[in-house]
Automatic annotation (TrEMBL):
<dbReference type="GO" id="GO:0071555">
    <property type="term" value="P:cell wall organization"/>
</dbReference>
<dbReference type="GO" id="GO:0008745">
    <property type="term" value="F:N-acetylmuramoyl-L-alanine amidase activity"/>
</dbReference>
<dbReference type="InterPro" id="IPR036505">
    <property type="entry name" value="Amidase/PGRP_sf"/>
</dbReference>
<dbReference type="GO" id="GO:0042834">
    <property type="term" value="F:peptidoglycan binding"/>
</dbReference>
<dbReference type="InterPro" id="IPR002502">
    <property type="entry name" value="Amidase_domain"/>
</dbReference>
<dbReference type="InterPro" id="IPR036680">
    <property type="entry name" value="SPOR-like_sf"/>
</dbReference>
<dbReference type="InterPro" id="IPR051206">
    <property type="entry name" value="NAMLAA_amidase_2"/>
</dbReference>
<dbReference type="GO" id="GO:0009254">
    <property type="term" value="P:peptidoglycan turnover"/>
</dbReference>
<dbReference type="GO" id="GO:0009253">
    <property type="term" value="P:peptidoglycan catabolic process"/>
</dbReference>
<keyword id="KW-0378">Hydrolase</keyword>
<feature type="domain" description="SPOR">
    <location>
        <begin position="306"/>
        <end position="343"/>
    </location>
</feature>
<keyword id="KW-0961">Cell wall biogenesis/degradation</keyword>
<dbReference type="Pfam" id="PF05036">
    <property type="entry name" value="SPOR"/>
</dbReference>
<protein>
    <recommendedName>
        <fullName>N-acetylmuramoyl-L-alanine amidase</fullName>
        <ecNumber>3.5.1.28</ecNumber>
    </recommendedName>
</protein>
<dbReference type="InterPro" id="IPR007730">
    <property type="entry name" value="SPOR-like_dom"/>
</dbReference>
<dbReference type="Pfam" id="PF01510">
    <property type="entry name" value="Amidase_2"/>
</dbReference>
Length: 343
């Protein structure tokens, strides 16, 4: 829930426990993110829950489909655990890709049943909605990239998945992006920018005990230093155990370096022997060490309220110190509530 990337819009989570996809219970190790758009005018992220939280096997719906999250101009709703195998691609990509649907605005219609020819779509009028939904999707995509050690190059559109033979024949989201002079390439560029900006915001504050991840795409521990194997970047987080040598900062290749002396298991947070290598501070992203990721756990029984229930968000505190907010969040989680910290 808190991997050091901010999402300006709240990430809401509840799982589609009645959907056969959820019930199938298969897991994936996410290798990429597939972007869709809904081709359904005016149905927003929260509304998809009741539309899709149904069982095909029980005859409640005529579609076998489920996706990890819907995004609109105001909200993000996560409906499957991120490492759950989704049914969004209609092909092999279901085994490897997290699926995100961007909700299209209302006020137009489709000429065709396959949903690729927009009619009466007023680009100027829809521009504000599009920009907000686009940014929410970019932020979520960047956050997921960080979470799973992916880069913008691992992000594809459904239409690209079709072209490379791992998804069904759909035009989304390109048919909509193109209306606003955007493409999957510009989407990837926006994700890269979000990742880079996040990195630029967090160069400081790394000290002994800080848990960090190595920025995906980093090739060397420091300029002119040894190459970093992939497993070091993707396999685990690391804990900084030393920032000085003989009382002085350690500078290598012109960069101030810190020592990664412990490995941290991404799921259990267990510590083990570290790689014991000095690395450029600028190549690191701070991972908030106390925030256990709620979405990686099975939802507790108290959380899985029946379909149709309303969900209310309650703010339980405002803090100037992040540690205090985290301490309260831990108490809440221990009591069976799902929580998040918003800054
Ligand atoms: Zn699609």
């Amino acid at each position: 829930m808190n991997l050091g990337l901010k999402i300006g819009t709240i990430l809401n989570s509840k799982y589609m426990t009645n959907n056969d996809c959820f019930r199938a219970g298969r897991k994936i190790s996410p290798k990429g993110i597939m972007i869709h758009s809904t081709a359904t005018p005016g149905v927003k992220a929260a509304a998809w829950f009741n539309l899709w939280n149904k069982s095909y096997q029980a005859g409640e719906t005529n579609r076998q489909v489920c996706v990890h999250a819907f995004v609109d101009d105001q909200e993000i709703w996560q409906y499957l655990p991120w490492d759950h195998r989704g049914w969004h691609a209609g092909g092999e990509a279901n085994n490897s890709h997290i699926g995100i649907e961007i909700c299209e605005p209302g006020g137009f219609r489709y000429a065709d049943a396959s949903g690729s020819t927009m009619v009466d779509y007023d680009v100027a009028k829809q521009e504000a909605y599009f920009r907000k939904a686009w940014q929410n999707a970019v932020d979520l995509t960047a956050w997921l990239c960080r979470k799973y050690g992916l880069s913008e190059e691992d992000v594809i559109g459904h239409v690209e998945g079709f072209k490379s033979g791992i998804a069904s024949n759909h035009a989304d989201p390109l048919h909509w992006f193109a209306q606003h002079k955007e493409s999957m390439d510009s989407y990837r560029a926006a994700v890269k920018k979000a990742l880079d900006e996040e990195q630029a915001e967090r160069p400081l504050g790394i000290t002994v005990g800080t848990v960090v991840a190595i920025k995906p795409g980093t090739r060397h521990y420091y300029p002119g230093g040894p190459a970093i194997p992939d497993w070091v970047i993707q396999g685990s987080y690391h804990k900084v155990t030393q920032i000085l040598s003989r009382g002085k900062p350690v500078v290598r290749g012109g960069k101030e370096c810190v020592l990664l002396g412990k490995k941290i298991n991404k799921k259990t947070e267990a510590e083990s022997a570290g790689i014991m290598t000095w690395i450029d501070k600028g190549a690191l992203i701070i991972i908030v060490p106390t925030a256990k990721e709620i979405e990686e756990r099975e939802p507790p029984a108290t959380k899985a309220a029946p379909e149709g229930n309303k969900y209310y968000r309650v703010q339980v505190g405002a803090f100037t110190k992040r540690e205090n907010a985290e301490a309260l969040l831990k108490q809440l989680e221990a009591a069976g509530f799902a929580g998040y910290i918003r800054s």
